[in-house]
Backbone:
């Protein structure tokens, strides 16, 4: 059987260490859901509402900025708490990375990760090809609708809010959309939803344009080209410039908008090439990588 | 934005670029068309679903509401629902069904306070100004008050009793000696809370809350009610009223209140022109 991404890391560093970020991420995803579900299921009302807008302990409002933008484009003026909630969310994701929402919070990620796992496990290769820029077109469409029709049209389809609202307020037929996403990801386009189409992710990728938390391929000189990180990564195109860019003078920090900071590359790498970096957005050169000591600091453009 | 093509170093020529963009635009456009048409169908609210107090007009509501469910959670009576996919109500939006549980009309209106987007208009400060719909005594055949039985349950449960809902006492023509207490809704005070529909004792409620545009008729804009105009102006706006006169024999006048013809020449009891004994009239010869 084919070597599973992360098998080598598990063998060399132990299963726990090879799944550290995955476990933390699942803990975060399920924890967020649990906080929302504690009210309706156990009567413990810590958080009310859903991911579209919520209120924590009666003091902390959080609002989905993309949804609020659509609401405002339709002509509605938000209440102060709604606007503050959106601002808090924007600032948070602008710092930790926009698509941290996708990998650490969004419930659909559980579905698409399942599809990706099934694909790897049973060697199902979805052959469909789509542009990964399609999501930005759809994002434009999503914002265009309320402006023209006065209706938040996206909410009639949005699997993100359908899933989260459904789990908390009753699913109805929303499960069909999740099954559709699962099958589409598994059989039609690999990582097809989160990686190609989802306008929510596209929006957050723009929010996190100048994020402080980044994955850095600092140990890239140790890379033995096992390609485990490319196979596990939901947005594999983001890795190459950082991992293989040394020759072109590129820094080791993954600066692509669509890196979700999921940390799976850190987990599965047996050579411990990757790690999270805080604060410094500028790619730094690790001296060992440039033996000729020509340490020219090159700043990569976030849109590279 | 992202390096999607497997060989990013290979340059696209102009033709490929334009074709690619056109393909994507067409695909996204078709997808958008489908979604837009579906949303038109999915945005209609059935008459049995009532929005929470303060909800802005339905067309605007589907744009303003972000489907968060905070109003549902902050309702102390837990009578609001968030529509699920597959229901007739636009997915994710709040509504209630009056027959199951009407709005209790909290004075502090917590559902409105919870709304982050003004889909429930924060300008609503007095719950008596709420306009969720309008109660209509829609089945005037089965309402037992119309049958002449005492009920008045809708009247008694109405939170705006005696203003939004009054009882109109009418003569019971069936028995000939009883009164009927007919519930009458007044649209300028009814908030559409639905408590009347919830409480109606019939198997199927005779009084129902409807969206105002379904419940109300509308007088043509050109209509003028003469008596209203006269009251406003203080006098008739057309030719001044001429007092109506009957061509009556001298010394007689006619009283509209019920007394009829009065002979003012004879003091006391008005004398009838007809004889006391009807037989005498029948037997009389010649013209009457």
Residues:
């Amino acid at each position: 059987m084919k070597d599973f991404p992360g098998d080598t890391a598990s063998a060399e560093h132990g299963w726990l260490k090879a799944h550290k970020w995955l476990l933390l991420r699942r803990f975060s995803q399920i924890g967020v859901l649990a906080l929302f579900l504690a009210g309706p299921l156990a009567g413990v009302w810590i958080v009310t509402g859903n991911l579209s807008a919520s209120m924590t302990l009666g003091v902390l409002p959080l609002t989905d900025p993309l949804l609020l933008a659509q609401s405002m484009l339709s002509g509605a003026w938000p209440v102060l708490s709604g606007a503050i909630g959106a601002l808090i969310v924007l600032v948070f994701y602008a710092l930790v990375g926009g698509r941290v929402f996708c990998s650490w919070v969004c419930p659909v990620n559980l579905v698409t990760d399942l599809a990706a796992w099934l694909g790897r496990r049973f060697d199902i290769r979805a052959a469909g090809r789509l542009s990964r820029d399609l999501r930005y077109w759809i994002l434009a469409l999503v914002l265009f609708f309320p402006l023209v029709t006065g209706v938040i049209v996206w909410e009639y389809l949005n699997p993100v809010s359908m899933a989260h609202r459904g789990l908390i307020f009753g699913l109805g037929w929303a499960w069909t959309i999740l099954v559709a996403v699962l099958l589409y990801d598994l059989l039609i386009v690999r990582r097809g939803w989160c990686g190609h189409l989802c306008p929510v992710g596209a929006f957050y990728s723009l929010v996190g344009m100048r994020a402080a938390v980044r994955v850095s391929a600092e140990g890239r000189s140790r890379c033995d080209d096992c390609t485990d990180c490319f196979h596990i990564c939901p947005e594999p195109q983001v890795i190459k410039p950082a991992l293989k860019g040394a020759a072109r003078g590129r820094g080791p920090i993954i600066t692509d908008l669509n890196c979700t900071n999921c940390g799976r590359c850190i987990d599965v790498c047996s050579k411990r090439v990757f790690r999270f970096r805080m604060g410094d957005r500028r790619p730094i050169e690790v001296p060992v990588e440039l033996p000729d000591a020509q340490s020219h600091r090159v700043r990569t453009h976030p849109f590279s | 934005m992202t390096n999607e093509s497997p060989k990013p170093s290979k340059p696209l020529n102009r033709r490929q670029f334009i074709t690619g963009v056109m393909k994507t635009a067409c695909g996204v456009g078709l997808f958008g068309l489908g979604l837009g048409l579906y949303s038109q169908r999915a945005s209609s609210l059935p008459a049995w679903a009532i929005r929470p107090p303060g909800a802005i007009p339905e067309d605007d509501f589907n744009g303003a509401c972000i489907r968060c469910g905070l109003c549902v959670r902050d309702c102390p009576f837990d009578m609001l629902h968030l529509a699920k996919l597959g229901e007739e109500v636009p997915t994710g939006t709040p509504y209630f069904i009056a027959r199951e549980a009407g709005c209790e009309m909290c004075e502090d209106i917590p559902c409105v306070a919870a709304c982050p987007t003004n889909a429930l208009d924060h300008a609503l400060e007095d719950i008596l100004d709420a306009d969720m719909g309008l109660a209509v005594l829609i089945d005037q055949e089965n309402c037992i008050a119309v049958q002449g039985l005492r009920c008045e349950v809708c009247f008694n449960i109405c939170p705006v009793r005696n203003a939004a809902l009054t009882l109109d006492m009418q003569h019971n023509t069936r028995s000939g000696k009883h009164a009927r207490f007919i519930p009458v809704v007044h649209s300028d005070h009814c908030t559409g809370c639905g408590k009347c529909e919830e409480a109606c004792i019939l198997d199927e409620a005779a009084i129902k809350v409807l969206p105002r545009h379904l419940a109300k008729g509308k007088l043509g804009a050109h209509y003028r009610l003469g008596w209203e105009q006269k009251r406003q102006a203080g006098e008739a706006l057309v030719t001044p009223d001429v007092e109506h006169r009957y061509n009556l024999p001298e010394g007689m006048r006619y009283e509209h209140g019920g007394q009829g013809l009065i002979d003012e020449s004879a003091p006391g009891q008005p004398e009838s022109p007809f004889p006391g004994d009807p037989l005498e009239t029948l037997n009389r010869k010649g013209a009457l």
About this structure: Confidence is low (pLDDT under 50) at residues 1-7 of chain B. Chain B touches chain A through 49 residues (CB under 8 Å).
